[in-house]
Amino acid sequence: MTNPPVSNRPVTIHRRNFLRGTGVALALPWLESLSLASSSPNATPKRFLSVYHPDGVGLPLKSDPAWSDWSWFPRGGEKDFELTKVLDVLEPLRSDITIYSGLSHPAARKVHGHSNADQFLTGADIGGHGPYKNSVSVDQVIAGHAGEFTRHASLVMSTNGGIGGPRGAQTQSFNQEGRPIPAMNKPKQIFDTLFVTSGKDAHARLARSKSALDLLIANTKALEKSLSKQDQQTLKQYLDAVRDTELKLAKAQKWIDTPTPVIDTSNLHLEATPAEARLYFQTMYELIYLAFLSDSTRVATFQLGRENGEGPHDLLSRAVGLGGAHGLTHAVKQPNGWKNLGTYNRYQAEEFGRFVQRLKDTPEPTGNGNMLDNTFAMHGSASSSFHLSRNYPIISAGGKNLGFTNGRYLKFGKGNEDNQAGAGIDTDAGWQGEARVQEEPLALLFTTLLQRFGVETDSFAGITGTLNRV
Predict the structure, then answer these.
(1) 3-class secondary-structure state, position 41
(2) In total, how many domains does the chain have?
């Protein structure tokens, strides 16, 4: 892949000049933003990416011949770890990544792996059945802090698109009220949202949308007095969604006269679908890269399918000549079962590594190292072995200028230093069994993240404190 032309620096400077010149960002927030991001006049963006993959990873027992090659977690200690065949594609990036074990969300540890993805970035106690209530995801907290300086507060993507259903979300991102944010899954749609101008009638269409919204709000407020308590609650949820639309319209108004960035499209294949797995995967990652490079957004999520069923993501394993991705986790005891699941996990890591390398190879448009130095990118799942909502397999990359030290394999908790708790299972006995090991809350890592992005907080998802050693 070739890097885009260095036409991005003028774009960034032009956009910031516009923001200051029109008074959209007042002096004090502008200065606070600069002080949080960098001490230099040209503020360096801090970026966040979360990539989620469903169905967990392969964890054969040590007694299984597949253990030496196809177990996801590395062997060894913090710095002398050895990658198995599943993650050895990341060896060239060894000094830029950190691998975590022993982290999970306490509220989800007894939830079936087909119902746990909704809480990966929220940590909420959504339960495995019954009433459902989620909370804000960590990416949206970061977006709320940094999003005013970009055209798009965040970029929400998935292979399946939309929101899915409770405990079967097709998006990682949840707003302040805990409602799912619809994900985009068509490369052309994402590209147009990021980089295609709205046209000459944009002002008129925006005005019509605002007028219609004002009328809707007035009518619903008048209706509220005559509703039952249950209906009033339903209406409140509806009005929360309307307020989200209000905010989006206000943001669109601020940016409507600002030219969209000019970017290099040579690596894009906008008509690709999951059926063309490798092309689709790489195009989606390229769109994230271009969104970050042009400073169109600083926050992105990408969900590689949903838990709780098949879908377009099932086609991604075609890239490595395998059948449906979801079925691989159910066939680990068949001939070459662990190898097949490990091969697909390896492919996921390979594409993530390709994206990470792309960031590393690109000088930061504002200076201050390369783009990876200023980006915290994480790749993980809310399951380890078969449907087990514990010991999440997580990789992070980058973030040097955010205070993260890489080249490490960090083990947390007690009693599972060799990551064999739940290994070898291919039935639901694993997630139904009692946990015999101690794990640390993943929320501790999220609080650490938020603090390094400049968010003043000492807790996330009801858990106070930060994660040591990171």
Answers:
(1) coil
(2) 1
